[in-house]
Design a protein that fits this description.
There is one protein chain. The longest helix has 16 residues. About 40% of the residues are buried. The radius of gyration is 16 Å and the shape is globular. The protein has 7 helices and 9 strands, in the order E-E-E-H-H-H-E-H-E-E-E-H-E-H-E-H. A 7-stranded mixed sheet has the order 3-4-2-1-5-8-9. Strands 6-7 form a two-stranded antiparallel sheet. By secondary structure, it is α/β, with parallel strands linked by helices.
Length: about 190
Amino acid sequence: MAKKYIKDTLASSPAGGLVNGLAWTQTGGELLQCEAVVLPGGGKVQITGKLGDVMKESARAAVSYIRKHCDELGVDIEFYSNLDIHIHVPEGAIPKDGPSAGITIATAILSELTGRSVKRDVCMTGEITLTGRVLPIGGLKEKAMAAYKCGAKTVIIPAENMPDIAQLDSEVKDALEFISVKHISEVFENALNR
């Protein structure tokens, strides 16, 4: 049976816990929306959406970073003992893996924990480390095209990927603002509403 293609679209308004990530696929770039919700519980982290091991590791790194920096991020330090976190990437029939969703996952979790909504026209891609560094990714050309096609205005990318912008079509470069980041704190600052 042929796959039914549906145009990727951004959320209609700013939302809490919903972040526009970008993915590389064999057929080009795609919008990869990541959702996070917190529920009463005991610190369990649940990850769904047919995610591979590397993506699950990114989610764990994001949670650990937030736990370590609760005070500066405005998160209740007890969140890990009295809340569960559920991270979901829709389109569960499609396998997803790779580290480049790390900053997307971290932003979704922080948004949900703080109640700060995410700017609806921002997309992002980048790997996160335990200390919050943002590492480079592959496939920027395809990911930027996906951001352009879905109507994004801003794309947050690792600083080390800035030279890759020269390879983009001029129409895409002119339509998008690229924000380069070296640390996850810069991602939060540019993606979350106050």
